[in-house]
Design brief:
The structure holds two protein chains of two kinds.
Chain A: E1 15-24, E2 27-37, E3 42-47, H1 53-60, E4 68-73, H2 83-87, E5 89-92, H3 104-112, H4 121-127, H5 143-155, E6 161-165, H6 173-188, E7 192-196, H7 200-206, E8 209-214, E9 217-222, H8 224-231, E10 234-239, H9 246-253, E11 257-260, E12 263-268, H10 273-286, E13 294-296, H11 300-309
Parallel strand pairs in A: 3-7, 3-8, 5-6, 6-7
Antiparallel strand pairs in A: 1-2, 1-4, 8-9, 10-12, 10-13, 11-12
Chain B: H1 3-20, H2 22-43, E1 49-52, E2 55-58, H3 59-89, H4 92-97, H5 103-133, H6 142-163, H7 170-187, H8 199-205, H9 209-220, H10 229-249
Antiparallel strand pairs in B: 1-2
Helix pairs in contact in B: 1-5, 2-3, 2-5, 3-5, 3-6, 3-7, 3-9, 6-9, 6-10, 9-10
The chains are: A alpha/beta, B mainly alpha.
Chain lengths: 313, 259
């Protein structure tokens, strides 16, 4: 193990990625990306399917080799992962089923044996909210409860860095809120968390900083507030009145509407005043009621869609 | 925890799983015992014998030795093939690989757990033979039986792990493992005495290790016969081939998920 020198007040980055590239044959999945993850932060890593997200995470976790670039995780190149390094890393993988024949307590206890200095087993089970299910077989748990066991196994070694790959997929809203509280608790324990998620509200709620990947390239980096501000403009949302087509809305407002179900979103580059005037004027003339009309800065969801859809638009 | 203590814990964990897996228990533990009783009841008229190595062995002893070989293939080859394919495709091997546990600990524990089951099966089948069918084991047979059981277990385990590279789904493994074992069972002298097989079927059977394990065990029950060089050599060759393939091709990450 090398000696890590830390300057007081200037924590060393936990993850440093420079010029990372990964090619599978002629297909280049990751096209030269740079980012850093600071100690103690929750780092949100976002991207659509096929953006190179999983490839990047698996390189950081030591599962996959890279084509080019420099990667340091906790001071070590993950391509040369050591047992001591694995002691400090916690993994919550995206697709990894547990053996249904063992109980929660048996499974967590077995994994605790793999580490030199594990967290207390019952304590960790309680931390993920499975105190009641301690002696239940994993095969009898719900999807959300199984995911909590995954998180418990990621935490049992008391890691400095925890990879959480889509930790709340398949959770009901209450379970998701509980998981958020738990992940926020990890920040208080001083853990660094590398989080990927499909849910923008989750990223907005949890992540200190975000990196958005598209087609193997980083298209945005910053806090959720910074990304919203960078994106600029304003968003107008309302429910499409009955008998009205999105085409009519475009004609009347001069703005292309994004339609999701009955919800219409208009992105305004600058001030929304003009668009809003035309929209409400038209609705008044035609006696349409614009239900759920909201004018707001873009949410992370809007920013993400804008950044990841540009290439296909 | 040091590696030895950890290996012991992991082996205990694996055995706990084996005990709870009712379906696997029925196929790999209950089934051979039922088959032993069935074959001996249907074909084993008291006093009848079958030719083995130019001598004659009681049909009861013949079936007992054959079923022991069959149980070793089921618990070595078939169980490991199904177990490792399932663990790999479920992402469990990948998860283990991400912990500080040395990979050899997990593999070793799974193999040792199967060896424990095999040892228990061998003892159980020998006891049933002794109690129910009055099969006396000649003292000269103890050494050869131990050699064949150990060598046969090593062969079947290494081939089971080698075969995991061929199966990308647990369903495929669950079909191939038991199917291969049953088919070879019929042409290797475990269900039907080889003297009753057409010559060409017997020749096909003798390419594979089960025939040599079964006939080695059957031969050693003939008083004073010892080890047969051909049987030992063929088993060892399969063991080495399986080991080489297993070491070179074993994968920790799901095969089906890779594009």
């Amino acid at each position: 193990m090398g000696i890590t020198v830390r300057v007081r007040g200037m924590p060393a980055p936990v993850v440093v990625v420079q010029g990372l590239r990964k090619a599978y044959g002629s297909h280049v999945a990751v096209k030269g990306i740079d980012f850093e993850v600071q100690e103690g932060e929750i780092f949100g890593f976002l991207g659509t399917n096929g953006a190179g997200k999983t490839t990047t995470i698996e390189i950081l976790e030591g599962y996959r080799s890279r084509t080019a670039g420099d990667v340091t995780v906790l001071g070590l190149d993950p391509a040369h992962a050591t047992r001591a390094w694995r002691e400090r890393i916690g993994l919550v993988l995206q697709e990894s089923e547990l053996d249904p024949l063992y109980t929660v307590h048996e499974t967590v206890t077995m994994f605790a044996c793999y580490y030199e200095h594990p967290r207390p087993v019952d304590d960790t089970i309680a931390l993920v909210g499975l105190r009641e299910q301690r002696d239940a077989r994993i095969g009898q748990l719900s999807g959300g409860q199984k995911r909590r066991v995954d998180v418990a196994l990621g935490l049992i070694g008391d890691p400095d860095l925890l990879f959480l790959d889509e930790p709340t997929t398949g959770f009901d809203p209450q379970a998701r809120r509980d998981a958020w509280t738990m992940i926020e608790g990890l920040r208080n324990l001083g853990k660094t968390v590398f989080l990927t998620t499909h849910y923008m509200d989750e990223a907005q709620h949890l992540a200190d900083r975000l990196t958005i990947l598209r087609d193997g390239v980083i298209v945005a980096q910053g806090t959720a507030a910074q990304l919203s501000a960078q994106s600029g403009g304003t968003v107008i949302r309302f429910t499409l009145p009955g008998g009205v087509t999105p085409g009519q809305v475009e004609q009347e407002t001069g703005t292309h509407p994004d339609v999701s179900g009955a919800e219409v979103t208009l992105h305004c580059e600058g001030s929304p005043q003009q668009v809003l005037y035309q929209l409400t004027g038209w609705a008044e003339r035609e006696h349409h009621t614009l239900e759920n009309l909201v004018v707001s800065p873009p949410t992370l969801d809007d920013v993400f869609l804008e950044l990841t859809q540009e290439s296909t638009a | 925890m040091n590696t030895v203590a950890l290996s012991a814990r992991q082996t205990g964990f694996a055995l706990l799983g084996r005990r709870r897996d009712a379906r696997a228990m029925i196929f790999t533990v209950v089934m051979p015992i039922v088959l032993l009783v069935l074959f001996n009841s249907i074909f084993g008229t008291r006093g009848s014998t079958t030719p083995v190595h130019g001598s004659r062995l009681s049909i009861h002893a013949y079936f007992m030795a054959g079923i022991i070989a069959y149980a070793i293939m089921l618990n070595g080859f078939s169980s490991l093939l199904i177990g490792f394919t399932t663990d790999r495709e479920a992402g469990r091997l990948k998860r283990y690989r991400g912990t500080p546990m040395p990979p050899g600990v997990f593999l070793g524990a799974e193999i040792i757990a199967n060896i424990v089951v095999i040892a228990a099966m061998v003892v159980t089948l020998l006891l049933i033979g002794r109690v129910a069918y009055n099969i006396a084991i000649p003292t000269s047979a103890f050494g050869p039986i131990v050699v064949y059981v150990v060598l046969g277990t090593a062969t079947m385990c290494s081939l089971g792990i080698a075969a995991t590279r061929l199966t990308t789904t647990p369903d495929a493994a669950s079909a191939i493992g038991p199917f291969a074992t049953v088919i070879l069972g019929f042409i290797s002298g475990t269900f039907v005495p080889v003297s009753q097989l057409p010559g060409w079927l017997e020749q096909i059977g003798r390419v594979f290790p089960l025939a040599h394990l079964a006939q080695g065990l059957q031969g050693s029950l003939v008083a004073g016969s010892g080890l047969d060089a051909t049987n030992v050599a063929v088993l060892a060759a399969w063991a080495v081939a399986g080991l080489v393939v297993a070491v070179r091709t074993f994968r920790w990450e799901p095969l089906a998920a890779q594009g």
